[in-house]
Amino acid sequence: MTVRLLAAAALAAAVGVAAGTRPAPAQDRKMSREQALQAFHLLLDANGHGGKGPNLLVQPPALPGVGVPDGMVKVWARRYDPDRKQPVGEPVALDAVAWQPEEYFLLQFQSTTQVYFTLHNVLKENGVTKYDMVMPNPREDLLDSFKPIPAGKEYEMPFPLVMEKHADDEEVLFGFYTQRHPIFTPPAPQPTPTPTPTPGPKRPNYIIQARDIDKQVLGRDERGGVPVNPVKRMPLFELQVSPPPRGDRPANGHDAVAKFVAIKQQGGVAQLVLKKQKSGVRAGPGG
Fold it and tell me: CA–CA separation, 239 vs 241, rounded Å?
């Protein structure tokens, strides 16, 4: 999908787009949805009460094609009414519904451990694949995109995305990274030099931080290119999970539709295609 933010020109200039290619997924990772949910809750317990510390009495399960992960993330969406400024309807699978042109939606998550989230458009032009960073984003009303997804709790992105008008399917690259991931440094304010008449930390330069995060996630070179595809650098950890059996109604509605992404070596990526009647995506106005 093309997740289009109404992005500031400064972001486009600072981050830009880069070329690459996408390899085919390497391994079969099929498992039942019930198995995935059991693994998710075991990992949540293993990370200890809401991710506050490891519980050594719980053995995290091995996942098909992944082994023992560092964590798991569930991802789903809800449609969004821009007039009422609130989500509407039931949870939906991002890649299993037909999106309308200019339809708004909210991303929602639940993670077994605290993770930072990145989102890139995957754009294919004249046989070349390019990556355009959407989140985190330094636009003033989107600064919450720099905040981590907390452990345990269901988390809703505090601003909507919206589909564009064109009819092509849209593709995105999701990334999830713990604080310990070697290529991702969480943004933090720089301390103010002392002595100073105004105590307290300086405001971070979010444009520079967004550019640096984009460069680290994609492995961009000095010219802004991507010599090694990010999916190849960090293998796809989107688990192929079967739908629930007929008549099965999970306690949480999103459990029936969520995508599962494994966190391995403190990070994981997933590439999704959003099928639309007429498609494209950008970030909508702040909620």
Answer: 6
SS3 assignment, position 44: helix
Rg of the chain in Å (alpha carbons): 19
Tell me which residue has tokens 């307290």: 200
Task: Kindly state the tokens that stand for 44.
Answer: 């949540």
- Virtual CA dihedral for 124, 129, 135, 137, nearest 10 degrees? -90
The structural domains of the chain, with segments of one domain joined by +, span 9-283
CB 106 within 8 A of CB 78: yes
Tokens of 17: 């787009």
Entry pTM: 0.75
pLDDT cut 70: percent of the chain above it: 64
Tell me how far apart the 2 most distant CA atoms of the chain are, in Å: 67
CA separation (Å) from 212 to 10, 199, 207, 224, 272?
14, 27, 9, 11, 24
CA dist., res. 184 & res. 131, Å (int) = 17
